[in-house]
Design brief:
Elements (H helix, E strand, L loop, with lengths): L2 H6 L8 E2 L3 H4 L5 E8 L9 E2 L2 E15 L2 E4 L4 E5 L5 E16 L1 H5 L4 H7 L1 H4 L6 E3 L2 H18 L6 H11 L1
Parallel strand pairs: 1-3
Antiparallel strand pairs: 2-7, 4-5, 4-6, 4-7, 6-8
Helix pairs in contact: 6-7
Length: 171
């Protein structure tokens, strides 16, 4: 029996739910970003979150399962995970990239919540894929934007939350 079939035999309630908190990001507000280089599987067991997650991979090979559907890991691809979605990784090569995590409250603070969250179709649209592959011409722009987000996250100051929220809206 394949790994996926074994997992699918379990009820969704058996799948762990990771909750957002300062222990995840090391900061007091609901946002985090980090670079990673993982030679082994990044969370090889199915799990869920109560927050949004975006992965930008620049290297690696294998599969990222999102709601039990396999997506090939390809360099210069984004993977969008909504709160409650089940996901896990099966890696054939080391993955490198960057991850952003944030709550709906962080994204929508001071905005029309319904319009803003619904505008994030890449998170919620059943008919679209949670994976987005970037062309060579867009890779530099995306890498620069993510570099700015990481820089701002690592620079604590009064305006940090506003700047990070603005970058996330641009993203």
């Amino acid at each position: 029996m394949s790994h996926l079939l074994r997992i699918m035999t379990h009820m969704s309630s058996d799948i762990p739910l990771h909750k957002f908190g300062p222990s995840i990001t090391g900061v007091s507000f609901p946002f985090g970003v980090s670079k990673y280089h993982h030679p082994d599987s990044r969370y090889p067991k199915p799990h869920r979150h109560d927050f949004f997650e975006i992965h930008y991979l620049t290297a690696g090979q294998g599969h990222h399962y999102i709601d039990f559907e396999a997506y090939d890991i390809e360099p210069f691809s984004l993977y969008f995970i909504s709160p409650g979605q089940v996901h896990f990784w099966e890696l054939e090569q080391t993955i490198e990239g960057q991850a952003m995590i944030f709550t709906e409250d962080f994204l929508t603070l001071g905005s029309n919540r319904d319009n803003l969250v619904n505008a994030l179709s890449f998170f919620h649209c059943v008919s679209s894929t949670p994976k987005l592959k970037f062309t060579t011409t867009k890779q530099g722009y995306l890498a620069d934007l993510l570099g700015h987000i990481l820089y701002e996250f690592e620079q604590p100051r009064v305006s940090q939350v506003s700047v990070l929220r603005a970058y996330l809206h641009i993203f």
